[in-house]
């Protein structure tokens, strides 16, 4: 659970910066920030599950 | 004639000195570059994200990098993460002067959140580089 929370915090902070510095209107920025946040979360979860099924030893 | 006009349009105007000063201020104190230009919300959001990331990284037990290489490691390998950490400007410099946040001992490394802390500290610096560039572009009139 802690890993997920940390990943969410990381995604939130990074998407705030990416969202704030791109696009022209506040609405576009909000949408872009939400999109970046969703991408971080989806890709993070997908990578987590891929790594889970890799037999490391 | 058209070609001449296009050539003139392609030549970027040099940024004014004030834009460089704003850029330097934005690097030194995260968020200050936007606040000086009265971009309150943008400064609070972007600068706040950097400050929060920095302090949460320290709270998690992360450490910052300087040129001092741990035993068995190369000094060259310290440079890229140090550049990332340096992005936090005064936060890095003050921590370095106080000797706080640079310890890399086994006790600290054993903490469950140690690597997370390192990552948050690195990301804080990298995000501040983006914030600095944004403030510079606004000051240079290249961005609304």
Describe it.
- The complex is a heterodimer of chains A (57) and B (144).
- Chain A is mainly alpha-helical.
- Chain A is built from two helices and no strands.
- The radius of gyration of chain A is 14 Å and the shape is elongated.
- Chain B is mainly α and 144 residues long.
- The interface between A and B is medium-sized, with 12 and 21 residues.
Helices of chain A, by number, come to: 2
Largest interface: A-B, 12 and 21 residues
* Secondary-structure-derived class of chain B: mainly alpha
Strand residues, percent of chain B: under 5%
Count the beta strands of chain B.
0
Oligomer state of the chains in this structure = heterodimer
Average predicted confidence as pLDDT of chain B:
89
Find the structural class of chain A using helix and strand composition: mainly alpha
Q: pLDDT under 50 segments of chain A (min length 5)? A: none
Number of helices of chain B: 8
List keywords for this structure.
heterodimer, A: 57 residues, mainly alpha, 2 helices, B: 144 residues
């Amino acid at each position: 659970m802690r890993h997920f929370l940390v990943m969410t915090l990381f995604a939130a902070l990074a998407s705030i910066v990416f969202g704030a510095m791109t696009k022209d209107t506040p609405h576009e920025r909000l949408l872009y920030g939400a999109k970046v946040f969703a991408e971080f979360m989806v890709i993070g979860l997908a990578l987590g599950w891929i790594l889970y099924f890799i037999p490391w030893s | 004639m058209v070609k001449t006009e296009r050539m003139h349009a392609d030549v970027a105007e040099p940024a004014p000195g004030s834009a460089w000063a704003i850029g330097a201020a934005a690097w030194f104190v995260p968020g200050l570059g936007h606040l000086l230009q009265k971009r309150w919300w943008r400064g609070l959001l972007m600068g706040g994200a950097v400050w929060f990331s920095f302090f949460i990284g320290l709270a998690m037990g992360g450490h910052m990098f300087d040129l001092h290489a741990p035993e068995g490691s190369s000094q060259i390998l310290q440079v890229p993460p140090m550049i990332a950490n340096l992005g936090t400007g005064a936060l890095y410099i003050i921590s370095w002067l106080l000797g706080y946040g640079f310890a890399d001992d086994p006790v600290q490394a054993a903490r469950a959140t140690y690597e997370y802390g390192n990552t948050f500290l690195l990301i804080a610096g990298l995000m501040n580089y983006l914030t600095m560039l944004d403030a510079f572009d606004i000051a240079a009139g290249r961005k609304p």
